[in-house]
Amino acid sequence: MSNLEQTLSIIKPDAVERNLSEEIKVEFKNKGFKILKDKKIKLEKHEAEKFYQVHQTKPFYDDLCSYLSSGPIVVMILEKENAILDNRKLMGATDPTKADDGTIRKKYGISIDKNSVHGSDSPDNAKIEIDFFFKD
Ligand code: IDP
Ligand code: MG
């Protein structure tokens, strides 16, 4: 059965600042993802707080929101069969030191907070996150 999905991907400040955006886009394209929309933006802290509100009870929430709003990011809608799970696989584990070889976080991630990419974790969140950035 076909399961064409869209997911929200973010290239985080640590990767944008190291000029890795184009290289990371190639990683997605090489795995069959179509980049339907993309834009480079900078979030205000209150916007990052809204985006990450599911994490608001976590001890790292404030640092996480400061970090995501610390510099430009690239947000993208990726499309592919099983895009949500396949993007999570391509990203690798949250902590780059635990990520498998060949994953984006293993290759580019610096630390658990500066882990270079975000990807939606479920169909519901993919819709919410795509709307967050691309609803006109
Ligand atoms: P994910 O990005 O792999 O989905 P989540 O658990 O949703 O991971 O956490 C969101 C983001 O919060 C992570 O990408 C990472 O940047 C940050 N984060 C997660 N756990 C920790 C932690 O224990 N310390 C610091 N930052 C963390
Ligand atoms: Mg997550």
In a nutshell, what does this entry contain?
The chain has helices at 13-17, 21-30, 45-51, 61-68, 83-91, 104-108, 123-134; strands at residues 4-11, 34-41, 73-81, 117-119. With 136 residues, the protein is of the alpha+beta class.
Average pLDDT works out at 98
Q: How big a fraction of the residues is strand? A: 15-25%
| CATH top level assignment | Alpha Beta
Domains counted in the coordinates: how many? 1
Strands, count = 4
Bound molecules: inosine-5'-diphosphate, magnesium ion
Question: Would you identify the CATH architecture?
Answer: 2-Layer Sandwich
- Could you name the CATH homologous superfamily? Nucleoside diphosphate kinase-like domain
Amount of helix:
40-55%
Q: Which structural category do the helix and sheet elements fall into?
A: alpha+beta
Distance between the termini: 32 Å
Largest β sheet strand count, sense and barrel closure: 4 strands, antiparallel
Low-confidence stretches: none
CATH fold assignment: Alpha-Beta Plaits
SS element count, helices? 7
Kindly report the spatial arrangement of strands forming the biggest sheet. Answer: 2-3-1-4
What is the N-to-C succession of helices and strands? EHHEHHEHHEH
From the alpha carbons, calculate the radius of gyration and give it in angstroms: 14 Å
Using the alpha-carbon principal axes, give the shape: globular
